[in-house]
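Researcher: First entry.
Model:
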Amino acid sequence: MSETAPQPKSVPRRAISRPIFERTFSINSEQAIRVIRNSYHRLMVSLYAIDVILRIIGREETVDEIEGIVSQMIAECAEQLQQEKLRLEKLKADNGITETPTYTHPREFVAKIASPQIAQFVELIRLLDQLMIVMDTLWLCQVISNKHCIEARYQWQQRLQRLANKIVTMEKHAHQAAYEQGHGEELRIARETEGLTDEPEAISANAAEF
């Protein structure tokens, strides 16, 4: 019986060493916690993958364009959050309210900042949390109604989740375009090297426990 020739061992690719900030925050409101649980991990992977994918196929100008669009969308959302927070803080001051509630189940959020856009979105989550605290204060002090508070909480939470979904969709389109241009194998290798899954759809929105 002939012996089978030994198969060459595959050499694992060396992961690229990239800069990262790791920051820990306390998140109080249920709405901000839900944004992290439902959208944060998938969004962070998408922002990271956009940079990896488009630079592989030599489209530096497209990377710059997408990063600009993402930054603008996040900045516009942050401005809206900030304006509403200032409005509610004035309402709080006008009613002579100085108390701030504590929360029964705050969570520790460890954010890994691997790009400026990730840093922007993390600050957006923190701003949402701050807005919810002011809103909850006004509700507990009977300045705003229960119905209004429930609706506003949901709307602001959904605004951030819709924004995250738009960015994820941008990554999927970039991924598909790269495959159509014949860069499928390059993408597979790059995603494997970077610790990303092979396909965007394979990443669960709840992959990170929070």
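Researcher: Second entry.
Model:
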Amino acid sequence: MLIKICMGSACYFLGASKIAKRLQELIDETSLTDSIDFRASFCMGPCSEGVVVEVDGQRYYRLSPENVEEFFQREVLNRIENRNGK
């Protein structure tokens, strides 16, 4: 799974670095470092809808430090569980 987070100036200002840090912690806590390729990205475009995160090509908007854990559960863990047939 490829996860990219926008680090353009608008997203950075909205907390992208905090979100990236927490996503990396969640990846580590769930022992998914071998299953997830997590990368920072240059500006992904829709600056007014940041923070932007992309999971396997699907974009998600308006992530925040407050909703990143819910996002991880819903969009990352659920996707991995569905792939594994759970």
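Model: Note on the second entry: The chain has a mean pLDDT of 95.
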